[in-house]
Amino acid sequence: GENVEQHPSTLSVQEGDSAVIKCTYSDSASNYFPWYKQELGKRPQLIIDIRSNVGEKKDQRIAVTLNKTAKHFSLHITETQPEDSAVYFCAAKDYGQNFVFGPGTRLSVLP
Amino acid sequence: NAGVTQTPKFRILKIGQSMTLQCTQDMNHNYMYWYRQDPGMGLKLIYYSVGAGITDKGEVPNGYNVSRSTTEDFPLRLELAAPSQTSVYFCASGSRELFFGEGSRLTVL
Description:
The complex is a heterodimer.
Chain A: E1 4-7, E2 10-14, E3 19-25, E4 32-38, E5 45-51, E6 56-59, E7 62-67, E8 72-77, E9 86-93, E10 99-101, E11 105-110
Parallel strand pairs in A: 2-11
Antiparallel strand pairs in A: 1-3, 3-8, 4-5, 4-9, 6-7, 7-8, 9-10, 9-11
Chain B: E1 4-7, E2 10-13, E3 19-25, E4 32-37, E5 43-51, E6 54-57, E7 64-66, E8 76-78, E9 87-93, E10 99-100, E11 104-108
Parallel strand pairs in B: 2-11
Antiparallel strand pairs in B: 1-3, 3-8, 4-5, 4-9, 5-6, 7-8, 9-10, 9-11
């Protein structure tokens, strides 16, 4: 089955700097890659996603890139703000319609 | 439109007790999922359903059971609770974007 790895597990950046989180997946049949943000004590919420026929997608300060050949995808957050502090999860949707999540990255944006 | 609703939000169980976590969605989604999230960890799939009457095991199904008699409801049953089942449980629905419930924090003592 699908396996998703995510790095780093924790990330601290200064406010205004950029943050990059990387994920790799194992199943070449996976075709949908969402990113979820989970604030402390809250439910995960979708922030951006990308399909396998697209290499990059951007939404304001957030972007995701996908390299299907290498089977990895990355989340880029520019001009980070304190409210970006949260745990971020990547996921891959496999052929069986299941979402397999990475272990998460705890991002801290320092003022 | 309430989305995904889970109850209860908090529960303490004694070892060996049983309980059911309720989940209902009003978005007419065929796909529904139960995940558990241990402290500081990611989301592990317990069971999922692709439609009423159809359920299947995920990555960590032992100690749990589910049923899906309607499109809206997908309850998770814990039989003979064990301390290892202490976790936060999330129900989710959707086939592209996953919509999560608020979570149910379960402690087994």
